[in-house]
Automatic annotation (TrEMBL):
Designated name of the protein: Diaminopimelate decarboxylase
Catalytic-site annotation from UniProt: C328
Record: residues binding pyridoxal 5'-phosphate: G218, Y356
Cofactor(s), names only, from the UniProt record: pyridoxal 5'-phosphate
Family according to the record: Belongs to the Orn/Lys/Arg decarboxylase class-II family. LysA subfamily.
Entry EC number(s): 4.1.1.20
Metabolic or biological pathway, per its Swiss-Prot or TrEMBL entry: Amino-acid biosynthesis; L-lysine biosynthesis via DAP pathway; L-lysine from DL-2,6-diaminopimelate: step 1/1
Domain (Orn/DAP/Arg decarboxylase 2 C-terminal): residue spans on this chain: 18-354
Matches recorded under CDD domains: PLPDE_III_DapDC
Length: 404
């Protein structure tokens, strides 16, 4: 997308606003599938939690993707977007047995990561195929909040509990159709994947009716010029060879599955904000924008980096700014950034705003959540309206405090 396209969108739809480039989503999807072209059966299940707009889900359906869901609501959203139940895998954590049973009733693939829940579900529904999420005890991820495969993680069934797991499967006679893991996000070292894959292959040998092995995701994308990223092509070559070797020894061509979110949508996203004020203090020049961590919490939540540029004045001389929001707590998007000269009213663009940005937005300070735009076939399509005051109070119930 051109800067002029983004400025036009900001002027037409107002700011702040999220914009997603469909062409980038498609290219990332094709890059991933091409990296694993040597695997006979490959399934990409887009992680809905990264960006859950129904138009984005429909785009992935058009590309041939399935979806990975973590709540019954995401399952329902996937069905509403046109995915068939068999194209949906449900991978919750810490939910009730009732919710898992509700998802199973809808016919989607079930992934369980708790021995107690597994035993209860298997006892009541032994004929419903179940995938098992394994914790490989591999520490991986760019931040403690997104590292989910280590020994202290709440996710998955420990590899040291395999004997107990097998006893449950034997006693309930349940059908295990898949093995799954997810070690973390922003993983750079592909040897982490390859090491964890050996653990998963060893676990898979215990089950005779598998249909797929799901390696999760966690591929790192670049956040700034010259940044390093997961070498998907090298990973594809090496993991495909290991997977194909395992399938031969297993005696069956299984499906290799992934559930990427950030890798597919992060770079497609642009978050546009308007500069309300430029404030000079004794040591800092602040660019104060019409947004805050209510719309983009990632920098405050786990220190994520988003490149920020001035698309209203892309050729202006560079100066140093701290870009901050309007929330009454600290909400600094970027400290001491070199940005083309900023004036009040300019539009700033935050890059890598496609994953875990709008989906984690809130109405904190009773602010409206922004509109969302899909740039598709060189045209802007409104895929979510900006909220209004009616949306803020819609589900609130006023009590008559004067009625004694």
């Amino acid at each position: 997308m051109k800067n002029s396209d983004l400025v036009t969108i900001a002027n037409e739809y107002g700011s702040p606003v999220y914009v997603y480039d469909a062409e980038k989503i498609e290219s990332q999807y094709k890059r991933l599938t091409n990296a694993f072209k040597d695997v006979k059966h490959l399934k990409i299940n887009y992680a809905v939690k990264a960006l859950s707009n129904i138009s984005i889900l429909k785009l992935f359906k058009k590309l041939g993707s399935g979806i990975d869901t973590v709540s019954i609501q995401e399952v329902q959203l996937g069905l509403a977007a046109g995915f068939s139940p068999e194209q949906i895998i449900y991978t919750p954590n810490g939910v009730s047995l009732d919710e898992i049973e509700s998802a199973a009733t809808l016919g989607v693939k079930i992934n369980i990561d708790n021995l107690s829940i597994l035993e209860q579900f298997g006892t009541k529904h032994p004929n419903t195929p179940v995938c098992i999420r394994i914790n490989p005890h591999v520490m991986a991820g760019g931040n403690a909040n997104i590292s989910v495969g280590h020994i202290d993680s709440k996710f998955g069934i420990s590899i040291h509990q395999i004997p107990h797991l097998l006893r449950i499967v034997e006693n309930t006679k349940m059908n295990i159709n898949g093995i799954h893991m997810h070690t973390g996000s922003d993983i750079l070292d592909i040897d982490v994947f390859l090491y964890a894959s050996e653990i998963l292959f060893d676990t898979a040998k215990h089950f005779k009716n598998l249909e797929f092995i799901d390696f999760g995701s966690g591929f790192k994308v670049p956040y700034k010029t010259g940044d390093i990223e997961t070498n998907i092509e090298e990973l594809g070559k090496k993991l495909s060879a290991k997977f194909n070797t395992f399938c031969k020894s297993y005696g069956k061509d299984l499906t290799l599955a992934f559930e990427p979110g950030k890798f597919l949508v992060s770079e497609s996203g642009h978050f546009l904000t308007k500069v309300n004020a430029v404030k000079q203090t004794t040591s800092t020049v602040f660019a104060q924008v019409d947004s805050g961590f209510n719309h983009l919490i990632r920098p405050m939540f786990y220190g994520s980096h988003h490149e920020i540029d001035n698309i209203s004045n892309p050729k202006g001389r560079e100066r140093f700014y701290s870009v901050v929001g309007y929330i009454c707590e600290t909400d600094t998007f970027g400290n001491n950034r070199r940005i083309n000269e900023i004036n009040e009213g300019d539009i700033l663009r935050f890059k890598n705003a496609g994953a875990y940005c709008f989906s984690m937005a809130s109405n904190y300070n009773s602010r409206f959540r922004p509109a969302e735009i899909l740039w598709y076939n060189n045209k802007a399509h409104l895929i979510r309206k900006q909220e209004t005051f009616d949306d803020i109070i819609n589900n609130q119930v006023e009590v008559d405090l004067d009625n004694k």
